[in-house]
Amino acid sequence: MNRTVVVAGAGVGGLSVADRLRAILPERDRIVLVDRSFDGTLGLSLLWVLRGWRNTDEVRVRPTAAALPGVEFVAATIESIDTAGRGVRTDIAGVIGYDALVIALGAELDTAKVPGLAEALASDVAGQFYTLDGAARLHDLVQDLKRGRVVVLVGGVPFKCPAAPFEAALLIADQLGDRHSSGAVWIDTFTPDPLPMPVAGPEVGKALVGMLESRGVGFHPGKTVTAVDAAARTLRFADGGSESFDLLAVVPPHAPTAAVVSTELALTGWIPVDPATLATTASGVWAIGDTTVLTLPNGKPLPKAAVFAKSEAEVVAYGVARHLGYEVPELAFTGEGACYVEVGGHEAAKGAGNFLNPPAPSVTLHEPSREFHEEKAAEEREWIARWNTVTP
After folding, report:
1. Residue 243: which CATH number?
2. pLDDT, tens only, 51-68
3. For a Cys-Cys bond, which of 172, 179, 217, 335 suits 355, CB 3.0-4.6 Å?
4. 318 and 277, same structural domain?
5. Pairing relation of β-strands 362-369 and 254-255?
6. Does pTM surpass 0.90?
7. What are phi and psi of 229, to 5 degrees?
8. How many Å apart are CA 83 and CA 21, to the nearest integer?
9. Which residues of the chain have pLDDT under 50?
10. Of 192, 227, 254, which closes a domain?
11. pLDDT tens across 186-217, in order?
12. Based on the domain organization, do 187 and 283 belong to the same domain?
């Protein structure tokens, strides 16, 4: 009997799970990978595009069926998901039925959530570094700034890669060079959170604040933005305060895709999953990566980061195979993960530990080094080579 597994989304999680599924399922089982565009990048590359260490063509990941033989690639937008009827509705390929479904649709940028933000981005008063074109444009805006204030703003939580806004601030300082060290341009960060990467614990957060301040970057916690005035170059906050800027580098609010919202699974927006198996409340349906909310023992959500999507993919692939009746090992997500924090000068700090550790994540932040930067670069090279090369 032939079965069909649909993988919705071809980001890090989707590609990883499709790859592993094809390795463990028999050839007679159909694996369908659906995405509106098979053209992406690793999130870590975006910061290097922002800094000017990469150009957009160098970091593009364009997987094709030739890179993953035995998997059907369907280029279409997923409009809705019917878990009761076991079907995925697309705009081009119609309804694709499934016996098992993996939802890996990531998160979208929702600039409309903050009044005035879209206008600020359109007028180059602000820039963002969560897309390739955005990161490249923000690099140019930073390069053109001769004097004034750069504000790096977290527009809402949760967002992808909790370290990214603070890395961006440090890399912008590095790019500015003498303009920053002389005081001609100064940088401040604003976030709704009490500390950077709060899920990793107060010690990690305080260490990151120390890294910012030692490099001349200000840190302002507990600041929830309510509006951006592009003409006046002013931010307004929920506490009644306001701040001026000359250039705004923003993490736009994130939102689940319309297809995720269409399911009965995402009552709070993101899809809750079992912390060990990544299973949803619907039979035969799993979700991984940024589209999920995985609650840790301390009640906080697992950070949205590619490192977790990759390890979740391994667990889910075996879970799908067991669901289809195959005798394969039963794996569990361990919560182990690491992320790098670029500080400039081709050096990076590294935070590593177990995020499922009870009662709270056990994470250590290691001091910046060139070795950690090179580790991060090796991850980038490996991922790009894997998906931009034809598999024998």
Report:
1. 3.50.50.60
2. 999 999 999 999 998 999
3. 335
4. yes
5. unpaired
6. yes
7. -105, 100
8. 20
9. 392
10. 254
11. 999 999 999 999 999 999 999 999 999 999 99
12. no
